[in-house]
Design a protein that fits this description.
With 231 residues, the chain is α+β, with helices and mostly antiparallel strands. It has four helices and 13 strands.
Length: 231
């Protein structure tokens, strides 16, 4: 099983080894006059998520970077600070890859807010930083604008975008006979963008190729059917 965590569309360089998800409820127990208890069932509360993530000061072979461009811990700390101070929700997404394939039922996608984060530095770790992140599910609220004419009739009704709504990564499962050029042509209308797909999915494509018994993915020329990539 392989995981990739995304915060506001940005993959974490090293996937956390575990994540704690707390599913809360708001049920209330009341005491009745006869001495018995009654459980009042209410709608569930907001889900809480917590995990630790490693932010490497140096690039490791197992690190994942968008476009394969190394980013220092400061890049991710700035990202977290921005998510905390801008007072807007964002998309939290976990892609789970099992046997080089994925099933939507096993992925996590929800709008969240960054409730708290802290980080620890240890000289013995060579400058790497470990950050603890706490997220809380966000219930998006939208507004509707209605235009009424002089006769009191509704002319137009437009609903605004909800906070925290962000398009999650588009996932594609490689089929037998596919090439990155054909995938780029079908999805972007430009086969020359195959190199972008390879750069953004290099870790997954190379891992799949090696798992299939090949030396490597030969720069994206060899892609394994069943591999799930992000577009």
């Amino acid at each position: 099983m392989m995981y990739i965590f995304y915060l506001d569309g940005v993959p974490l360089p090293v996937t956390p080894s575990k994540v704690k998800t707390k599913i809360r409820n708001k049920n209330k127990t009341v005491d009745l006059v006869n001495g018995s208890e009654l459980n009042l069932l209410k709608l569930p509360g907001l889900t809480e998520i917590e995990f630790n993530a490693l932010l490497p000061l140096h690039r490791y072979p197992f690190s994942i970077y968008r476009g394969q461009h190394f980013q220092s811990p400061k890049y991710y700390l700035d990202l977290l600070e921005g998510l905390k101070t801008r007072r807007k929700a964002f998309e939290f997404y976990i892609m789970r890859v099992n046997d080089l394939a994925t099933t939507d039922a096993f992925n996590t996608s929800m709008p969240v807010t960054l409730e708290e984060y802290s980080f620890t530095e240890d000289a013995n770790d060579g400058g790497d930083i470990t950050v603890t992140i706490s997220l809380k599910q966000y219930n998006a609220q939208g507004t509707k604008t209605i235009t009424v004419n002089e006769n009191g009739e509704i002319c137009t009704s437009e609903e605004s975008a909800r906070d925290g709504e962000r398009q999650k990564p588009t996932l594609y499962t490689v089929q037998e006979g596919d090439t990155l050029w054909e995938i780029a042509q079908n999805y972007y209308g430009d086969g020359e963008r195959w190199s972008e797909i390879y750069a953004n999915n290099k870790y997954i494509l190379e891992t799949a190729a090696i798992a299939a018994g090949n030396r490597d993915a030969f720069g994206g020329l060899m892609i394994i059917p069943g591999t799930v990539i992000e577009l």
